[in-house]
TrEMBL record:
It comes from Leifsonia soli. Its cofactor is pyridoxal 5'-phosphate. Belongs to the group II decarboxylase family. The keyword Transmembrane does not apply. This is Glutamate decarboxylase. GO terms for biological process: L-glutamate catabolic process.
Length: 477
């Protein structure tokens, strides 16, 4: 056999012998890191000209995503980063379901209704059968829907009285989550921010009369302020609105943004009046993908009664041969997460949710307790509301480093712990925050405390100040 024939036979041995697979005949089945796309450059800002093997495309995407941070060590995010194997299997089995297509997927639609009725009961709705709710893409959409209902109710009442509707406003804390800023921007509502202070760390009803008037569509109360994790006292806010109504006649309702606390308070603080037990609360939203323990992409919003959701906001849609009522900003959206929520309700029950949330709170209290003993720090709160807490650098401790430097040192160990300025009147105060989620074990927490002590010891030994040029907050709500 000649050398040329030998080469031809060797090359032929690498060609596919089965039916055409959709891959160009010119593509050779070389070892994975020598395939086209692995040993050559692919464009990153346009679609490639040719196909590639699925293994090749997978490897490229897999390798690029490895450059992200470790989700389990991300203590900046509230969003869940872990579910069990049965949930993962259910997720893969139902990823193709479109939640809005209730005619094609009637059982998923029925499960959605079961879930929000369960949640309505959890939030002490007077009669869950007479409540109304829906799933959403996270709590941001849920907040938008709650805000829209407040605005429409206000508009209807004003028109009935022959009054103008061109200047609606919404009262909320300066520490509110950014989705409320978006709501006010997108739907032409004036945002009236009540500034937090060292004396009033959350919106608590103090001087509320200065912010509300006849154009106020409602007040937002947060069960777990994003900046610090503290609850806003819903009952206390309601009492302030009672006094305002007695003086002015204004009957102003409350939407509770329970993004995190909505799935914590019912289990860990069942005696706390924050939900539909407070008469002024007409709607509540939550993030199922936070302490609802579901993977990202699910929120819930529930109204006290059907009458609290204006009927003209609900559309009857003909879709794929069926009629269905819908109230949502997103039309096509995944149904898998709804099934995951139902799975968790069945899997954990009330006792299971209590145990999971209590374990997270115990870890938060351990971490805040250890940090409180460090001379460099002063706690803002301790994580006894939702399992989230923040701390600040103790005044006069050092001029050589700040919390941004500590955040950078911890990132070297894989920990993502943000440092950021507080809002408005406290913008000169920088804090650092830890979010404890299901999956952060006591063992990991002890390792984290060791890494914080080591980082502080290193920073305290500096003989001169660390550079501060280019420092930016690592906090994006």
């Amino acid at each position: 056999m000649t050398m040329s024939e030998s080469k031809k036979r060797a090359a032929a041995s690498h060609l596919p012998t089965t039916a055409y697979t959709g891959i160009s005949d010119r593509t050779q089945l070389n070892p994975i890191f020598a395939r086209p796309g692995e040993d050559t450059d692919l464009p990153v800002d346009r679609i490639p000209d040719n196909e590639s093997l699925p293994e090749t495309a997978y490897q490229i995407v897999h390798d690029e995503s490895m450059l992200d941070g470790n989700a389990r060590l991300n203590l900046a995010t509230f969003v869940g980063t872990w579910m069990d194997d049965h949930a993962a299997r259910l997720y893969s089995e139902s990823a193709d379901k479109n939640m809005i297509d209730k005619d094609e997927y009637p059982q998923t639609a029925a499960i959605e209704t079961r879930c929000w009725k369960m949640i309505a009961g959890l939030w002490n709705a007077p009669d869950p059968e007479k409540a109304i709710g829906t799933s959403t893409i996270g709590s941001s959409e849920a907040c938008m829907l709650g805000g829209l209902a407040l605005k429409r109710r206000w508009q209807q009442a004003r028109r009935a009285e022959g009054k103008p509707t061109d200047k609606p406003n919404l009262v909320l804390s300066s520490a509110v989550q950014v989705c409320w800023e978006k709501f006010c921007n997108y739907w032409d509502v004036e945002a009236r921010y009540v500034p937090i202070s060292l004396d009033h760390k959350v919106l608590d009803g103090y001087e509320l009369e200065k912010y509300v008037d006849e154009n106020t569509i409602g007040v937002v109360a947060i069960m777990g302020v994003t900046y610090t994790g503290m609850y806003e006292p819903v009952a206390q806010i309601s009492e302030a609105l009672d006094r305002i109504q007695a003086d002015t006649g204004l009957d102003i309702k409350i939407h509770v943004d329970g993004a995190s606390g909505g799935m914590i308070a019912p289990f860990l603080q069942p005696e706390l009046s924050w939900d539909f037990r407070v008469d002024r609360v007409v709607s509540i939203s939550t993030s199922a993908h936070k302490y609802g323990l579901v993977y990202p992409g699910l929120g819930w919003v529930v109204w006290r009664t059907v009458e609290d959701l204006p009927a003209d906001l609900v559309f009857d849609v003909t879709y794929l041969g069926g009629h269905m009522p819908t109230f949502a900003l997103n039309f096509s959206r995944p149904g898998a997460q709804v099934l995951l929520q139902y799975y968790l309700f069945l899997r954990l029950g009330f006792d299971g949710y209590y145990r999971v949330q209590k374990a997270s709170q115990d870890v938060a209290l351990y971490l805040s307790g250890e940090i409180a003993t460090m001379p460099a720090f002063e706690l803002w709160n301790d994580g006894s509301d939702i399992p989230v807490f923040a701390w600040q650098l103790k005044k006069g401790h050092t001029e050589n480093w700040n919390l941004y430097h500590l955040s950078e040192r911890l990132r070297l160990k894989g920990w993502l712990i943000p440092a950021y300025p507080m809002p408005d009147d406290l913008s000169d105060l920088t804090v650092q925050r830890i979010v404890v989620r299901n999956g952060l074990s006591r063992n990991l927490a002890e390792s984290l405390i060791g890494d914080i002590r080591e980082a502080v010891e290193y920073l305290d030994q500096l003989e001169g100040p660390m550079p501060t040029e280019g420092q930016t907050a690592s906090f994006t709500h």
